[in-house]
Amino acid sequence: MPDPVTKIMVIDDEEIMRDGCTRILSKNGWSVVTAENGEAGLAELRKSPKEIDIILLDLMMPGIGGMEVLEKIQALNDIPLVIVITGYATVASAVEAMKKGAYDFIAKPFTPDQLRIVVKRAHERRALQKEAEFLRSERERSLRDVATEKSRVNTIINCMGDGILVCDRDRCIVLANPAASRMLKIPESALLGNYASHSNLPPELSKTIEDSLKAEGVVYTSVSQELIIGESQETFLRAHTAPVRNDLGEVMGSVTVLQDISYLKELDKMKSEFIAMVAHELRSPIATVEQQLTVVLGGMAGDLNEKQDQLMTRARERTRGVLTLINDLLDLSKIEAGKMVQYKEPLNLADVIIRVVEMMKIDAQAKNIRIDFLPPASISTIQADRSSMEGIFTNLISNAIKYTLAGGSVTIRLEDQDGFVEISVADTGIGIKSDDLPRIFDKFFRVKTSETRQIVGTGLGLSIVKSIVDAHMGTISVESTEGKGTTFSILLPKAAGLAGCEGNA
């Protein structure tokens, strides 16, 4: 059934023709209006031009003829389909009407079926025209929406405080907002349209962008890195780079977000300086208190009864714990200032370990813990800072004694490998839960169990150890089984691999 909203106008000076067309077409569900001449038909069209879909137009009428009406109809904005009907049909008049914009032609007299066929064909054509017009208007609206959204997104990106860099799959920078230009101290004109590797970007950032674009078939999420921009006035940036993928997982480009963290670096520096100052001021008086307690416990201030001895011993242990915390904070401040490793020299680690083991024997004997050092027959020297190495082994062996129950053992091994020296410190202690292992080298992290509650510590020791190992271009790892023990392993390069490394680290 045809669309009931389709409206047809019959313009004919013969009333019988108007009535006949109305009866035939109305039966098919179409809405029909009539006009007795050209002037009335044009007047109705001007009143509601978009409501008429099809016009049946008689060519031979008094007043304005059909051809003239046809010309005026073509001048309207929304042109209905015109079917010319006449009793004087000739090939010439049909051709002329078609040239003036008529859609079809039907000659009088015609049967109802002939009329229905011609009008139905025009109705279908009109429906297609309306659909095409609707799709065109929707497309134009969508394009306007896209343009508006693009403008909005560009405005947001350009107003962002964080820098944005976008590269296409050909490694060309296609977007760089003002914040990125300002942070990188590179003009936008030198960024946009240029390859990332030729845009004066920091080399480490260019390499990260390059790697992200090569991430086809690789699980590559994002990479964070710190950048230092400028020389006289340094700017610290944190860059997050990630590949951009399509629905098929193919890498189409990369996006980098830049954040200025200079103020965070300044706050961190101020915090470290404050901690170092406070720790330095506290160390001397706390050390004096610890010495005085030792003197009292030694009987130099008179004999102590059992209760007094217990109280003094507990006070000295707590004081030593505070002193350890102060020393750790001072070491941490040195590491953050790059001053922990002062002087690298050829060093035999076996000598260093033997010295530390001798110092630790008193604590081990107090818990009936055996310490075994298994040095090789010969060992290569490494280029290292003696004080830092002593700090590493003091920390690891001390921890092993603390976290090993009475009657256990601690074993230190030293082995010579190709290009490296490997040191391991293994204990038969309480071990570390697998969930805690990833955080074991974090600052202030301590394993919390019922067995560790009474053990005094700062949570800084292993963080300091890792920082010293890193400063010597080495690696440290840990393996542990809860209830059975823990092993820390360190790999340090031999002296030959660090020629010329003496001096400040």
What does this protein look like?
With 505 residues, this protein is an alpha/beta fold. The chain folds into four domains: 129 residues, 3-Layer(aba) Sandwich (Rossmann fold); 101 residues, Beta-Lactamase; 76 residues, Helix Hairpins; 165 residues, Histidine kinase-like ATPase, C-terminal domain (Heat Shock Protein 90), CATH 3.30.565. The protein is 44% helix and 21% strand. It contains 13 helices and 17 strands. It has a five-stranded parallel beta sheet with strand order 2-1-3-4-5, with helices on both faces. A five-stranded antiparallel beta sheet has the order 7-6-10-9-8, sandwiched between helices. The protein has a five-stranded mixed beta sheet with strand order 12-14-15-17-16, with helices on one face. Strand 8 and strand 9 form a beta hairpin. The longest helix is centred in the N-terminal third of the chain and has 48 residues. The two termini are 90 Å apart. The C terminus is likely disordered.
The CATH level-2 architecture of the largest domain is identified as 2-Layer Sandwich
Work out the number of β strands: 17
β-sheet strand percentage: 15-25%
**Helix-strand makeup class:** alpha/beta
Instruction: Tell me the number of structural domains.
Output: 4
Mean pLDDT: 83
Count of helix runs: 13
Overall CATH class of the largest domain:
Alpha Beta
**Sequence of strands across the biggest β-sheet:** 2-1-3-4-5
Please provide the ordered H/E string of secondary-structure elements: EHEHEHEHEHEEHHHEEEHHEHEEHEEHEE
Please give the share of residues in helix.
Answer: 40-55%
- Unreliable segments (pLDDT under 50, ≥5 consecutive)? 496-505
The Cα radius of gyration reads: 45 Å
Note the gap between the termini: 90 Å
